[in-house]
Design a protein that fits this description.
Layout lengths: L39 H4 L2 E3 L2 E7 L6 H4 L4 E7 H10 L13 E3 L4 H10 L3 E2 L13 H10 L3 E4 L4 E4 L4 H6 L3 H14 L2 H11 L5 H16 L3 H13 L4 H17 L3 H8 L9 H13 L3 H17 L7 H14 L4 H10 L7 H20 L1 H9 L10 H17 L3 H17 L5 H15 L3 H11 L5 H18 L16 H18 L4 H6 L4 H8 L7 H11 L2 H15 L4 H18 L2 H12 L2 H7 L1 H17 L3 H18 L2 H13 L13 H11 L4 H8 L3 H15 L4 H13 L1
Antiparallel strand pairs: 1-2, 2-3, 3-4, 5-7, 6-7
């Protein structure tokens, strides 16, 4: 993936303006106690293209609002007319019909209200029954469009209410007006929308309607449309004639909302039940909600207790599959032993309805647990092994599996594979109605962009995730922003009270890794304090294990700097064992880490051999992890300067200085500048000038020779030619041999 690849724009957040008002609406009473005219009616102002539109009374005086609550009409006037009316009348009355003002008779009000409740475009012919004869619907639509309340294109013949005014119009409606509007909308809507309008207009229990809503909710849930399914289940509970069925449908609404990460709807469904009277299944749902809201320890405790009760009821207990999966996930977040959790998730069958969903969820969780115990490659094998086709029919299932694969490929050091999986996940989010896993995909891609040097794009993804509806994902977005800031050398950001999320394994790993990045970026001698900090103990254990292998280079760096020889030896053994199966750039990281350790405890010859081994894969390291490459070159330059090889040290400092500037790592640039200054060759003299060796390599490569042929001419290794080419590309700001030939040709012409 190229470092300058712009982030895929997120899907815009869907507004909750399409929330349908319930069958019973509460209004603030008018001053005379008549609840049919809300108090908000007198103060409602809509600013639309310089016009002011308001609901007001027919007589136009404040006093008449008390005595004639039903005399309401819609009017609009321009800003100039507002000033004229203010000079001549202080009663707040609307202007007269003359003088260019627009009046809508109160008989037209029903037309605007019905369109606002429906929320869709409607052919003009369907509006004939909403106005009294012999009035034409066209005149009412034209007047409302002039007032800025309706959108109408006469050529298209379709009309709808302007989006920003929908809720404001609905807020002024009485109970009877709301019921009429929903009954009218139910006749013109289709599918689930028609059922929702019927439920909103219902004034009494209707078990037949409740069954229809319940069946439609389950059908939508199978297709992965969990947010709409949750809304239908909640409406089914509202119109249920049986209390037990209503409670069951309310639980279904909460479960569907949690699957779709619609936390507001889940809270609304779970709130009416007191904790003391809650069933085990209700406590499972409440525990899952607590986890998604960031109260991880509390949610894990609730889930564990409820899961034990459901297990005592037998393997066929309703909700057991959700309880097991969610409990294991919560316990993983708080740091429970991975082997125990794997045993628990794999030994228990998944019975009950929704088995395909829970089987898919369990497979992804099993892959993550396997990766934590045996490494990302083993987790990917679990994810790919025997996945039934039926589990991947919905966009939601494909997105969930793709997000898990992206995480594992990123942690396994495969940014290109991670990017491919992220694109699949974002494509599934774009095609699916519920895009909650798009936040996860953007988080993974943000880390991949950071690794590949596109820090501005990574920051853009982090800011997008901070606007998520889930506190857990908002915390992930802030952690990504903190990682970018740490690489740039910015001061640590203060965590506000409303941002605090309970401690978890991902949070502990992120805090330790950000601290290591900041320490390595700024070169501050804080490694010993970081490794000894009790707050970092959990993250230290995870970073030392098979998960997150590409971050081991920073941990080895810290262990060597802190003088922790035992931890450094264990990590180096792990890196050497993994080197054979790792991509070339990871082998460069492993050789670099070994060279740093040997520089403190071994001979210069052994250190030089290790740095030479790292040079063999340095080009892959720069292409995949530019910031690590720049740090590697700075460390190598410092070693060469201490050994007396000043010219080679200057070349490597300049290479590190160039790449650090490209990614925005200012502290690392300052370190390189200090190193160049110590060698009495400041970087400001000719920061982009080619050395004699680089000029010779550029001349030979521009003539069409390969790296091997160029190496034979210069009596060096092909790896050295590749190293010089990477420096040349960085200094000249080019990317290919073709651009290098063009640059050399222009150089000869001048």
């Amino acid at each position: 993936m190229r470092a300058d690849t712009p982030p895929t724009p997120r899907r815009p957040c869907r507004s909750r303006c399409d929330e349908l008002p319930g069958p019973v609406r509460r209004h603030t009473a008018a001053p005379d106690g008549d609840a049919s005219v809300p108090a908000v009616e007198a103060a409602l102002l809509l600013l639309t293209d310089g016009r002011v539109a308001s609901w007001t009374d027919a007589a136009g005086s404040a006093g008449s609002r008390r005595t004639a609550p039903c005399g309401v009409e819609l009017w609009a006037r321009t800003a100039a007319q507002e000033a004229v009316a203010g000079d001549g009348d202080d009663t707040g009355a609307p202007p007269s019909a003359g003088g260019g003002s627009v009046r809508l008779p109160r008989s037209y009000r029903r037309l605007v209200q019905c369109l606002a409740v429906l929320g869709d475009e409607v052919p003009l012919q369907r509006l004939a029954g909403l106005v009294s004869e012999p009035e034409e619907p066209g005149s009412a639509v034209e007047a409302a469009a002039r007032a800025g309340l309706l959108l109408w294109h006469p050529g298209a013949g379709r009309v709808s209410v302007a989006g920003p005014t929908r809720l404001l119009v609905i807020a002024t409606m009485t109970v009877s007006e709301t019921g009429f509007a929903h009954r009218w909308a139910a006749r013109h809507a289709q599918g689930a929308a028609a059922l929702l309008h019927r439920a909103a207009a219902a004034g009494r229990p209707d078990e037949e309607l409740a069954r229809q809503l319940d069946a439609e909710a389950r059908r939508l849930a199978v297709r992965g449309r969990y947010r709409r399914a949750a809304e239908l289940a909640r409406r089914a509970a509202d119109v249920s004639a049986c209390g037990a069925r209503a409670a069951h449908r309310t639980s279904d609404s909460a479960e569907f909302a949690l699957r779709g990460h619609d936390l507001a709807q889940a809270r609304r469904a779970l709130a009416p039940t007191a904790p003391d009277a809650a069933s085990p299944w209700h406590r499972v749902l409440a525990g899952r909600l607590a986890v998604l809201e960031g109260r991880i320890a509390e949610g894990a405790a609730r889930l564990g207790e409820a899961c034990r009760e459901l297990l005592a009821d037998g393997p066929a207990a309703a909700g057991l599959e959700a309880a097991v999966v969610w409990t294991v996930e919560a316990r993983m977040l708080v740091g429970a032993p991975v082997t125990e959790l794997r045993h628990r998730i794999t030994r228990r069958p998944v019975p009950g309805r929704g088995a395909a969903y829970w089987e898919s969820e369990r497979r992804c969780l099993d892959a993550v647990l396997t990766a934590a115990a045996e490494g990302p490659a083993a987790g990917l094998a679990v994810l790919a092994a025997g996945a039934p086709t039926s589990l991947h029919r919905t966009a939601e299932a494909r997105g969930r599996a793709a997000v898990t694969e992206a995480w594992l490929r990123l942690e396994g050091g495969d940014p290109e594979g991670c990017e491919a999986a992220v694109r699949v996940a974002l494509g599934a989010a774009a095609s699916g109605p519920d895009d909650h896993f798009a936040d996860a995909a953007l988080t993974v891609r943000g880390h991949a962009l950071w690794l590949t040097g596109a820090w501005e794009a990574a920051e853009a993804d982090g800011r997008a995730v901070t606007r998520s509806g889930s506190p857990l994902w908002r915390a992930q977005g802030r952690e990504l922003l903190d990682l970018v800031a740490a690489g740039r050398g910015a001061a640590p950001r203060e965590i506000s009270a409303d941002e605090a999320v309970e401690r978890s394994v991902p949070g502990a790993v992120a805090r330790l890794f950000h601290a290591l990045v900041a320490e390595a970026s700024a070169g501050r001698p804080q490694a010993a304090a970081l490794l000894a900090d009790p707050d970092h103990r959990l993250g230290l254990d995870v970073l030392s294990g098979p998960l997150l292998p590409w971050r081991k280079a920073d941990l080895v760096h810290a262990a060597v700097t802190a003088g922790d020889a035992a931890r450094a030896a264990v990590l180096l053994d792990s890196l050497r064992a993994e080197a054979a199966a790792l991509p070339p750039w990871r082998r460069a990281c492993a050789a670099w880490a070994q060279a740093r350790a040997t520089a403190l405890t071994g001979s210069r010859e052994a250190t030089a051999r290790l740095y030479a081994r790292a040079d063999e894969s340095a080009a892959d390291l720069e292409a995949t992890a530019p910031w690590y490459y720049a740090r590697y070159q700075a460390d190598h330059a410092a070693f060469l300067a201490a050994a007396g090889h000043r010219r080679e040290a200057v070349d490597r400092y300049r290479a590190a200085w160039t790449v650090a500037g490209r990614v925005g790592a200012e502290p690392l640039r300052a370190r390189c500048a200090a190193g160049l200054g110590a060698l009495r060759m400041p970087e400001r003299a000719h920061p982009f000038a080619l050395t004699a060796r680089e000029t010779e390599v550029a001349r030979l490569v521009s003539s069409g020779l390969t790296n091997r042929e160029t190496a034979a001419r210069l009596f060096v290794t092909p790896a050295s030619v590749g190293f010089h080419l990477s420096n040349i590309y960085g200094k000249l700001g080019i990317r290919s041999r073709y651009e290098l030939r063009a640059w050399w040709s222009n150089r000869e012409d001048t």
